[in-house]
Specification:
Elements lengths: L3 E7 L3 H12 L4 E5 L5 H6 L1 H17 L12 H11 L6 H9 L3 E4 L3 E4 L2 E4 L2 E10 L3 E3 L12 E2 L1 H4 L8 E5 L3 H12 L3 E5 L11 H13 L3 E3 L4 E6 L5 E5 L4 E4 L1 E4 L3 E3 L26 E3 L2 E3 L10 H15 L12 E4 L4 E6 L2 H6 L4 E7 H4 L2 H5 L6 E7 L4 E9 L2 H13 L4 H5 L10 H14 L2
Parallel strand pairs: 1-2, 1-6, 2-3, 6-18, 8-15, 9-10, 9-15, 10-11
Antiparallel strand pairs: 4-5, 5-6, 7-16, 12-13, 13-14, 17-18, 19-20, 20-23, 21-22, 22-23
Length: about 450
């Protein structure tokens, strides 16, 4: 008699791990497939090592602005050692053993769906009532003449570096590009950012892009906007030379591509289980992350919001649905954070996207040092800004952004308000801690009342 599993999980990044954990805890029979490392991109080559290694530059920037304190030279060797510790030295032995001890079947290899409830790997077939696709994405590399002649890196090469280069060019203007620029500049690397658009962080408010640009310049990063690479070549000294459209040449030790990612779904055979892919190659799912009968997808492979916290959220949705507690996913109030210095956080709609939806929106911008005490107790010559966006008709918050210290933490006030559709009257009635950055929300709401008559 063939063994039948309750669930087969393809890909054990954050999304896959959350589904596996919840189903195993519920006593379900689970088989997991992983072709690389259990924990996925986030644990070994992205979120964890990047945020770990960013902490040193962040602290030094903060200390340099604190009265009575002074920054010290960063120790790359010690920082690298701790990064490697946090990334488990690219060893998932303990993770595999943990799943085996909990009763999971762990399959090392590339999985493929051959039909409803059927998965093959390493020449073996596995049957399951439910298949969960959590295969993630892979980097997209631009193609231009000479791209194979230069020293080109993606996030994996950057966040496993043993020795730092003297200079780099980062192609792209995304969150990853900015974080990488702050990390490398903080350790003394000469950094040039090349972005083909007119502003950084193109999906955020123009004010956010301008503030981010200014802070990068303050760290000594050179930023070229409206710039794209025409060709590349290797210099006689081993350097990488980029020729930009327009003729400018940039010579660096290495080129880092931060130009998006592509879903790992095309070779899975999802169509054989009844699922479809969209024009970008993402697995189409409904509000339950359901792709077809007995088939689900979570995380970046869905193309909905490419964040680890969204993958984990979708995984909880799927696990509950499989366990008979039907849930629908809502993507209102999901935060977006760039762990730069200072941090950049946003949530909800922008003024442009609100307009596209026909929403009568009002935007308020607050300069934090001019409005509240916390920036002054936090640092000398303080900086920081908050923006909020409200729906005039419904009288609720629909968007917010902050470029300021610890913005990744206090953006969640706005996140919860948007998700819970908390009325502006209730928000204005809150009594935030003094002194704290959260006080800025009250200032913004008071300003809204006085200028917009809301």
């Amino acid at each position: 008699m063939e063994e039948i599993f309750d669930a087969a999980i393809i890909g054990m990044g954050p999304g896959g791990e959350v589904v596996a954990d919840r189903l195993l805890t519920a006593g379900k029979k689970v088989v997991v497939f992983e072709s690389e490392l259990i924990g996925g991109e986030c644990a070994y080559w992205a979120c964890i090592p990047s945020k770990t290694i960013l902490r040193g530059p962040e602290v030094n920037i903060e200390v340099s602005k604190v009265a009575g304190a002074s920054a010290n030279p960063l120790d790359w060797e010690k920082a690298r050692e701790y990064r490697d510790y946090m990334a488990r030295h690219l060893d998932d032995t303990a993770q595999e053993q943990g799943y085996l001890e909990r009763g999971a079947t762990v399959v090392r290899g590339t999985a493929k769906i051959t039909g409803p409830g059927h998965v093959t790997a390493n020449g073996n077939e596995y049957l399951a009532h439910h298949i969960i696709i959590a295969s993630g994405t892979e980097p997209s590399t631009p193609d231009f003449p000479g791209v194979r002649d230069i020293i080109a890196w993606g996030n994996r090469e950057v966040y496993t570096l043993t020795a730092l280069p003297a200079s780099v060019a980062i192609v792209g203007g995304s969150a990853v590009a900015l974080e990488t620029a702050v990390f490398l500049a903080g350790f003394g690397v000469e950094v040039t950012v090349l972005n083909r658009s007119a502003g950084l962080l193109g999906r955020e408010e123009p004010e956010v892009a301008e503030l981010a640009h200014g802070h990068l310049l303050g760290l000594g990063v050179v930023v070229h906007l409206n710039s794209s690479v025409a060709s590349g070549r290797r210099g006689e000294d081993g350097s990488s030379i980029l020729t930009l459209r327009g003729g400018m040449e940039i010579t660096v030790d290495a080129v880092i591509f931060s130009t998006g990612r592509t879903p790992r779904a095309g070779a899975l055979g999802v169509a054989k289980a009844g699922a479809t892919l969209d024009g970008s190659g993402n697995v189409r799912v409904d509000e339950h992350c359901w792709a077809a009968e007995g088939l689900w997808a979570v995380g970046d492979v869905t193309g909905i919001m490419p964040f680890t916290h969204v993958a984990k959220y979708q995984a909880r949705i799927v696990a509950d649905c499989i366990l008979g507690k039907e849930r629908s996913a809502s993507y209102d109030g999901i935060p977006r954070v760039v762990f730069a210095s200072p941090e950049i956080a946003a949530v909800g709609l922008t003024l442009e996207t609100a307009g596209q939806r026909g929403i009568d929106a009002a935007a308020i911008h607050v300069n934090l040092p001019a409005a509240i005490a916390r920036p002054w107790t936090y640092e000398r010559d303080p900086q920081g800004d908050l923006g909020i966006l409200v729906d005039r008709r419904r009288r609720v918050l629909i968007g917010a952004w902050a470029v300021a210290p610890q913005a990744s933490e206090w953006i969640h006030v706005a996140s919860l308000a948007i998700r819970g559709q908390v009325s502006l009257e209730v928000l204005r009635d809150m009594a935030p801690q003094f002194p704290s950055y959260s006080e800025a929300y009250l200032v913004a709401l008071d300003k809204l009342w006085s200028t917009e008559g809301i």
